[in-house]
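Case study B.
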Amino acid sequence: MTRRHLILPDRGTLLVSTDLHGNGADFRRLRELFLAELHRDPETHWLLLGDLVHGPNLRIRRTDPELFDYADESYPIVQGVAELRAAHPGRVHLILGNHDHGHVGGPHTSKFHSDEVLHLESTLDEGERELLRELFEQALLVAAAPCGVLFAHGSPSDLLVDLERLDALALRPAENGPAGERLLLSILQSYGQPRETSARMLRQVGARHGLELHVVVHGHDKDEAGWFAEADNQLCPVLFGAPPAHKRYLRLELAARYRSASDLRDGVELLRLHP
Ligand SMILES: [Mn+2]
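Model:
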């Protein structure tokens, strides 16, 4: 059994970033921010919400350069995250995204290539493939914090009740039976939920773990404004799919209490990656 959930502490600083999709410049800027925060506050955590891998193809780099013209640095990012996790144990947490999932038993994605899993793995040698799979096999599915926020790649449906149940899930969806498969795919692939669905999920998970949860922070989606909120209980800071000047990440105080998506304020908690 691998631990698939994390309850963060109630003190320290938390940086949260969403989909990188092979963007090395975004990764290096986040790493720099993380190391600076860690130097200032040794109780800093960095939570990456998945989809580290699978960059744009040549066609879309040319047709939409403002959003997508960058080299695919999927593997250097995988290597960089693995190195950082080794150098700072317990500080860098990776949540699995659906693109990452393809490398460890999930459905293969076809956003920029007909099979992005085979495409990326065909550029790697055996040792590199092993490191990539090892990183994704250890990844989390959901994290939650006493500050009131639950984190995942997608916005989980109300099938999510007990985070400890996630530890027993197999990454190969079909090995879980229909209910487990639906739960896994809801966490990895759902876009915004109706307000009441997220509210119910947050209440039931909170009750199970003794937390007061009010907001889901997720990735998996894009918006040229660099972030968007759904109802008052879901927020998606955007890196991939936003122009560089609008890309956002989150910086939270783990000792604070966030009671709604609007408590995650643009310019205060929600910050520009490349100001
Ligand atoms: Mn995704």
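The pocket of manganese (II) ion is lined by residues 19, 51, 97-99, 153, 220 (CB under 6 Å). The remaining cases will be described in the next quarterly update.
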